[in-house]
Structure formats: C-alpha cells, structure tokens
User: What shape does this take?
Amino acid sequence: MRIDIISAVPELLESPLSHSIVGRAIKKGLVEIYVHNLRKYGVGPRKNIDDYSYGGDAGMVLMVEPVFKMIEELRAQRDYDEVIYLSPDGEILNQGISNELSLKENIILLCGHYKGIDHRIREHLVTREISVGDYVVSGGEIPAALLADSIVRLIPGALTDETSALSDSFQDGLLSPPVYTRPVDFNGWKVPEVLLSGNPKLIRAWQDEQALERTKALRPNLLEE
Assistant: This one.
C-alpha cells in the first residue's frame, strides 16, 4: 500500500509517521508513506501557495494551481483509488472507513491549511472528504496522521498479533471490554476472577457482556445505530 500526503507544513508529519506501529510497518515494507511539500509547486518567486479569499472573508486560502500540479504529478506515476481531503465537513471517520481504506492500493491525503482550500479543488480533484470530528484544528496534518495510523495498523503484519485489531473498539459496533495485566492484586484492586480461570468460553462470555454494558453506559448511540 502507498499513501501520499500533500501538506503546506510537512514538518508536522515527521514524528507521527516515523515511530510506533506506522514506523515499523514502513520499515517492514508493508506500506510506503510519502509526504510532499506543496511549496514545490508554489506560484512565483516566493513559491506562494495561498492567497486572499474572494469576497473579502478573513483568512488565507490554499490556491488551486499548486494542488492541481502536485496531484497531476502523482497521478502521472500511478493510479490512485482515492484523493481524500481532510475536512471538518467531510464524513466522520469511523472504524468501517478505516477498514475499507486499508484494502486500497494507493491513496492521496490532502491536508488543508489556513482558511481552507479553493473549492474548485474539492469539485474537480478530490474524490472523498473525511473529518475526524466536529471541531476545527489548524490544518489537516494531524487528522491525516490520525487517518494514516488507523489504516496502517490494519494492514496484515503491521501488528505483532494480527488478531489484536479484531478485538478493538468499534470493530463489532461495540466498545471493547476492560483489559488487565500483572499484578493480579494492586492496592487491593483485583483482576476479575473469570480472567484467571483459564476457561476460554467463560472469558469470552464475560468480555461480550462487558462490551455490551460499557457501550450502553458510555456510547448508547452505537447501539441505536
């Protein structure tokens, strides 16, 4: 799998994509992630990538020309399944979307910045828009890193135990059950006896019950959906 990320501030993506599960997946050759500096195609001697908004609204807007040229360059080298714009008004990211995208071969993630991007980019170049929540952050770099992480961890071989992802929250529409590790007793806080029983059927039944109860208490909307 290959992920190309287009950014006005590529430095913001260096650390999140270089460590932990994503970093290891890159080293194993399971995924290629390339971050492209939009200023490569900046306009004029100053390599401008943004300009004032028509209509007089406050804030600068990413220009269509640099984004068009960058995407054209990438598309000339390979076919892309999706060109995704990280946008606060896109579809809300969920586990189902991450599962779907993990099966793709090549995707482009476009990070907005400043006030946003020229709307013609969204009309003619972007194939999908994804939001990480109903709030606004300074740019699309952190959301892009979050989306990339949620995708990469699902690629076979990215996790030490591939079955781990199957028990994550939201994979079956529920929150995951509580988890415990050593010691069995800490300050009188004890691990539930059933987890020490060694009986897989009892443990699974307890986990299913806990997942349902936690979802009812913390995220009842998941059950409604």
About this structure: The domain at 2-152 is CATH 3.40.1280.10 (Alpha/beta knot).
